[in-house]
Amino acid sequence: MSDDMSGFSRLDKLQPGDYYKTEEGYVVFTEQYLLRRGYCCKNGCRHCPYGFNKSKGDFDKGKK
Predict the structure, then answer these.
(1) Cα–Cα distance for residue pair 29/54, rounded to 1 Å
(2) What is the H or E stretch that residue 28 is in?
(3) For the segment 24-45, what is each residue's pLDDT rounded down to a tens digit?
(4) Which residues have a Cβ under 8 Å from the Cβ of 15 and sit 6 or more positions away?
(5) What is the largest CA-CA distance in the chain?
(6) Positive or negative: CA dihedral 27, 33, 38, 39
(7) Residue 31: which of 19, 14, 13 has the closest Cα?
(8) Cβ contacts of 29 within 8 Å, gap of 6 or more
(9) Which of the chain's termini has less CB crowding within 10 Å, N or C?
(10) With left for phi above 0 and alpha for psi between -120 and 50, is residue 18 left, alpha or beta?
């Protein structure tokens, strides 16, 4: 396994408004970023535009 972590520093692809940091220091991606990414990761993101409900493990009807 490579020790090269350069794949994790893709900050150049982030745009203003793509994320914010919580008081605890967590990075939270916004709906703007998640829509541009183009798919749902099914992790129950706080601003998921795709309507994934982590507790049910399914998508809520009526969302994208």
Answers:
(1) 17
(2) strand 27-29
(3) 999 999 999 999 999 999 998 9
(4) 32, 33
(5) 43
(6) positive
(7) 19
(8) 18, 19, 45, 47
(9) N
(10) alpha
Look up residue 63 and give its amino acid: K
Per-residue pLDDT, 5: 45
Backbone angles phi, psi at 63, to 5 degrees: -100, 170
> Quick one: pLDDT at residue 60?
83
- 59, pLDDT greater than 80: yes
CA nearest neighbour of 35 among 21, 25, 45, 22: 45
The tokens describing 36, both together, are 């541009």
pLDDT of the residue at 1: 44
